[in-house]
Model the fold of this input.
Amino acid sequence: MPSLRPALRRLASFLLLVLIGLIRLAHAAPTVSLSAPAAGATYLAPASLTVSATASAGTTLTQVEFLDGATVLATLTASPYTFTWNNVPAGSHPLTARATDSAGGVTTSAARTITVNGGNTPPTVSLTAPADGTVHTLPASVTVSATASGVEVNTPITRVDFYQGVTLIGSTTTAPYATVWTPATAGSYRLTARATDSGGATTTSAARTITVQAINQAPTVSLTVPANGASYVAPAAITLTASAADTDGTISKVEFFQGTTLIGTATAAPYTVTWNSVPAGSYSLTAQATDHQGAATTSVARTITVTASGPTVLYLHGDHLGTPRVATNEANVVVWRNLPTGEPFGMALPEEDPDGDGKATTINLRFPGQYFDRETKLHYNYFRGNYSGGGSRRSSASKLKRGEAEGAVPGKSGAGRGRDWRPACAGWRDTSE
Done:
């Protein structure tokens, strides 16, 4: 079978090529990547920096090389793959790592470019607190803080100093960079931070200006109109005016009050409001000034009187029998009161000035059909004439025959001959005859 031999040779060659390809697939190229330094890092010459990489392979790694461009800096044959590169000259350096395995596979990492400066670049620094333009009130503790960093990796920040003008108010050597300043007096202050790096370079931040003010003084206020004791006729339109000032700020508003009731508010000078349709009565008026920090002062009160323009109209409020118990004026103020809490025959005098305005209100009406005579202290009854509420007896001049008044009610007589009077819904009855 000589003709089969060439075919077998070709098959054997093909199988050998397949086997070689499988071996190559089983032994893939190694992997490698730089882990230090950081891409874009900047150093000050002559620099000393650590260069490191991570690498792995399907077979054994034989070496990892570190390159600056095409120049091999170091070759390592065992993990960890790291070395120190000393006296790095100024310039831009593209660094890579190249790994080789026992099967001959070679992989080069992505490049990281670093910069080495020939001279020290000053650090960066900026204030973060307090905010520019803020106002603080004595006694104040002001926190002054900043962020700072060295431009080169090998020139870190060694100190941050804080200044008020040219006066040092605090220093710190570690982050976070902050100090607490306690100003002694009120005024306007200019704050800065100055950072120093390990190479001795310094940078001063942009300034921030703050204001420190003394303890807020309350405003002053006084009513100028109306005059104390002024009198008006209802329904009155009364102008209220006040003068107000603040020695360490501004007036934000002036409020006008009648007692505790707000009449109106003025937010700008002249501080004035008009109180309209004021009913009759006596009123206590004040003004309250508030400054820009919320401090408030109330003026001395002024009392005014509003009198009725004509006859006073009173409203009587009766009980279930129609007996007047309360009288109110047009402003719904109780001006007379005869509450049924004492004896029922009218011997207790009513309250004639319950609102305390110094003006007595006299109402002589009692039970329906009765009128109280203040001079004689007797009650006149529409049906029976006069009687004494204390003795429940009528005078002899007002004798009436039995049953003459509507709704007569029999009753017992005192000692068989006295006249016993007692109340009924329609009036008083004589039961002695």
Summary: Confidence is low (pLDDT under 50) at residues 396-433. The domain at 220-307 is CATH 2.60.40.10 (Immunoglobulin-like).
